[in-house]
Design goal:
Rossmann fold, Small_GTPase_ARF, GTPase activity, 8 strands, alpha/beta, metal-binding, six-stranded mixed β-sheet, single chain, about 210 residues, magnesium
Length: about 210
């Protein structure tokens, strides 16, 4: 009986847990993505897209993916809120960055924000999942075009420097997304989980 209970305890409480930041400009679809992740990977469905309001602060979701626990922090993307993004960088294992494929006037702004994220030394080597959202809209740009826009950031930051002068590889995945319909999420989360299993950095445990 003791061994059975001990095994159950280890199964329930010894699973790996990873923290993931969801970032991007306001209106990119970050919270819609989070609610669809909840719908796919928890027993409680997330909010439908028409009930989602702009995030002012932080939304949190905890999910299970196979044997690992994933905790998502969705931060507001308004310009006045982006200054607090880096307060969370030390405590995360991966970053999801969401781009609105239809927001052509702000591609440069979005690219600049992404560059500031991946250049931050607190995120050295952290995997990056880049979602190009709203691919279902008729005027959205193609994945090929968006890849060319963000290519310079991705290529320059695939390697990040550490304090001792060595380089640390950063794994990057570009993924088409229709967050409102949940399309592209499974592929992206699978890639993320695979990378976290292989090379997630060690972070001191903190209660949130």
């Amino acid at each position: 009986m003791y061994s059975l209970l001990s095994g159950l305890w280890k199964y329930l409480f010894s699973k790996n847990e990873y923290f993931i930041l969801i970032l991007g400009l306001d209106g990119a679809g970050k919270t819609t993505l989070l609610e669809q992740i909840k719908t796919k990977y928890t027993k409680v469905p997330g909010l439908p897209p028409h009930k989602i309001i702009p995030t002012v602060g932080l939304n949190i979701a905890k999910t299970q993916y196979e044997e690992i626990k994933l905790t998502y922090w969705d931060l507001g993307g308004q310009s006045q809120l982006r200054s607090i993004w880096n307060k969370y960088f030390t405590d995360v294992h991966a970053v999801i960055y969401v781009v609105d494929s239809n927001d052509k006037e702000r591609f440069t702004e979005s690219k600049d924000e992404l560059e500031s994220i991946v250049c931050d030394p607190k995120l050295k080597g952290v995997p990056l999942l880049l979602f190009f959202n709203k691919q279902d809209l008729p005027d959205s740009e193609s994945i090929e075009f968006l890849t060319s826009v963000f290519k310079s950031v991705i290529n320059n930051q695939s390697l990040s420097s550490s304090e001792d002068g060595t380089t640390i590889s950063r794994n990057v995945q570009l993924q088409s997304l229709i967050a409102s319909k949940g399309e592209g999420i499974s592929e992206g989360i699978k890639w993320l989980a695979d990378n976290l299993r292989k090379n997630a950095r060690t972070i001191e445990k903190t209660d949130y």
